[in-house]
Amino acid sequence: MDLSIALLGLIIIVGLSSINWRRSVKAALVIVILEGVLRKWVLPQASDFIYFVKDLVLLGAYLKYYFSSEPKYPFKSSGFTITLLMVIGWCLAQSFNPSLGSPIVGFFGLKAYIFYIPLMWMLPSLFQSEEELYRFLRNYMLLVIPVALLAVAQFGSPSSSPINMYVGGQEATATAGGAVRVTGTFPYIAGYSVYLSTCFSLLIPLLTLPQTPLWRSLTVIEILLVIGTSFMTGARGLLFFEILFVVGYICILWFTQPSIAARSTKQFMLPVVLISAIVPMFFNKAIEAFSSRVAGSDSETFLDRAFSAFAEPENAMQFKGFDSYGTGATHQAVPALRQALNLPWGESPPPAEGEMGRVVLEIGPFGFLIWYGLRLALIFSLARVYLKLKTPFFRNLALAIFLFHAINITNQLVVNSTFAIYYWFFGGFVFLLPTLESQQLFSSKHWVQQPHV
């Protein structure tokens, strides 16, 4: 794409996005879902530019929100914010690491670490009431239906079909049991797996709400499609996440508030029975394909891979010791960036697949400690918020977000932009939910006790 055209597009997108920052943030979450459609089928020649569209939309929203005069959620001093400032300062310093060859690569890597974090402080101003939050989540989950139906069509089509391709026109090569491992509207399997885990985390608390028959039926259909197409991805980690999530959700709910857990269990009963009966009936081939993938691989290899993440930091230190290669050094898009801008190549880091190893290679052992210290601080903050909240919907939502963050502690956050935007957006619930509940205390209406329409 011509550089002048790309620059013009950048200015237009940022300018339009700065008009209404609330709409822009919500639009960015929709673009996350549709990005793959544009990159694979609509404008494949502009794939690289489209990859940054959601970031440009958010940039416009950031500029409007943080430079406007409207009231903002205060940036309070706490263990989390202190650790966050340390992470920002350290990553900024690492973006000038000489091993990178160029600070441009470092700034690109810096974006992967911190660009979506400002979303957290925007959340309390994004939603003005519990009803507005519920309606947004309810409507956002409706997008699951067309995305999952596309995945079903992909599963039933050969790998040579136009609907089964990755970015760049590459034919889908990942299969399980002779069937294609689906990607939905996303560029790759990893993005769709993150989307499914996110939707699963939100649909469980929505399932416990007293909704109207129409919306309750839609919620059941959505979670049915999420579970069914989870088998179609062939992603063992995704199914493992869903199992851990349900077990953790039920156990924590029963341990902390047995009375609410009893009511939630009643809400769960019929949907669970329906899902248990319908999934094997309509997704039998997907279950068989997934089972063949599990049977065809060594279970010990999967477990070793799952737990090897904790050994990656020590292994990564063998290459640079307490030094590092700089932010963005291991990012898969960096070679293309160097070639496009004719940048010096710098040092070549060793290959790294897991997140923990990548972080050590890029920002060193100290950076690793404060980065994962930040993630742990957010998890503990979500746990505290869950225990303090009184409103059932808020508590269940806080529990779901806590589990989403805790179970994904070793997952790719730096190099997976789909996961990153969801991670920090829902991390903002640590500020949003207490704010909404405190506002609700001053209102005589208890909207949550009424059926949601």
Q: How are the SSEs ordered, and which strands pair?
A:
Blueprint: H1 3-17, H2 21-42, H3 47-51, H4 53-66, H5 79-94, H6 103-114, H7 119-126, H8 130-142, H9 144-155, E1 175-176, E2 179-180, H10 189-207, H11 213-233, H12 236-256, H13 258-282, H14 284-295, H15 299-307, H16 312-320, H17 334-341, H18 355-388, H19 392-407, H20 417-427, H21 429-441
Antiparallel strand pairs: 1-2
Transmembrane segments: 79-96, 108-127, 139-157, 189-207, 214-232, 238-256, 268-287, 366-387, 394-414, 420-436
Keywords: Membrane, Transmembrane, Transmembrane helix
Overall description:
With 453 residues, the protein is mainly alpha-helical. The chain folds into two domains: 1-70; 112-323 and 351-449, no CATH class. The protein contains 21 helices and two strands. It has helices spanning 3-17, 21-42, 47-51, 53-66, 79-94, 103-114, 119-126, 130-142, 144-155, 189-207, 213-233, 236-256, 258-282, 284-295, 299-307, 312-320, 334-341, 355-388, 392-407, 417-427, 429-441, and strands spanning 175-176, 179-180. A two-stranded antiparallel ribbon has the order 1-2. β1 and β2 (179-180) form a beta hairpin. The termini are far apart. The model has no long low-confidence stretch (mean pLDDT 91).
